[in-house]
Design brief:
alpha/beta, Urease, subunit C, domain 1, about 35% helix
Length: about 250
Amino acid sequence: MLDTVRATMPEFDLHIRNGSVIDGSGTLAFRADVAVRDGRIAAVGAIEGEAAREIDATGLTVAPGFIDVHAHDDDAVMSTSMDFKLMQGVTTDIVGNCGAGMAAPRDPARPPMPGVNVVLGASHEGEWQTFGEYMDAVDRADLAVNVGCFIPHGAVRYFAIGMDRTEPDEAELARMRDAVARGMAAGALGLSTGLIYPPGAFAGTEEISALAEVAAEQGGVYMTHMRDEGARLLEAIEEAVRIARDAGLP
């Protein structure tokens, strides 16, 4: 009986036929079929075999889902269908950019970080108190896109110091480093900064390097909205390179 069932089951879940395939390797587009089984690409080329669903892609382009590496959809991925990204071919969203994000430690004694809601929205404000809690919520949710997240430096600084224009003392820096370490352990991609916005603009290079070192220890990367985009652009680039070099991360 089991052999009979196996014999009647289609080999693939999805068979996309006759498309112009761009596979992301840098090669020119080529005509091919693409077969999918159990949510993964099972074959590319001239494919035989039955499928539960078939799509004729004649005249169309078939490509892997795009990755939006700089998004501010921290709230949107949890509260919308993300049609505005899916219709552009984006299937992976990277959030927590520019030092601002919902996946960050929160001090219940402080109000939400000023300005964050303008960028991210506020429908889930206060539901997550740590980076790990946000990522746990992402894992539990039936999201329309894949999500990767940076630890937002501005939010970490606000957690430890608030909006003060001051350098962190030893205890405050230790608190920030611990927050970054916990975020990396929970699955963060690395550390992001927004040095053109407060409170990130109040941070010195040494502070950021000290936090980036923690991210580097767990294979993280450094993503920055630099300190200046005008007359001091070259200085801002030099600072970004110095932070990455001193911390030992890309």
